[in-house]
Amino acid sequence: MQSDKTLKRHAALVDRMAGTLGLDLEESALRGELRVDEIGDAVLACTGCESPGACEHWLDAHSDGSDQPPDYCRNAGLFARLMVR
What we know:
Elements: H1 4-20, H2 25-30, H3 36-47, H4 52-61, H5 76-84
Helix pairs in contact: 1-3, 1-4
């Protein structure tokens, strides 16, 4: 079981990554493009990442946006699917 601190950190990373890619996960869920449990699954997948610090640096360096996540992103497939829509 992940600690609350870990879950909050990775939830923030998932949300920041989505925003950097021009995605709004809540809006995607409201439109039926994403199930709410998929957001939770994305956070849990993110907790398995060995590079959260690198991800934070990548997000800081791409504050103006990006058209793709870094190669090591465990949610790259989910984000790619949402970006196609």
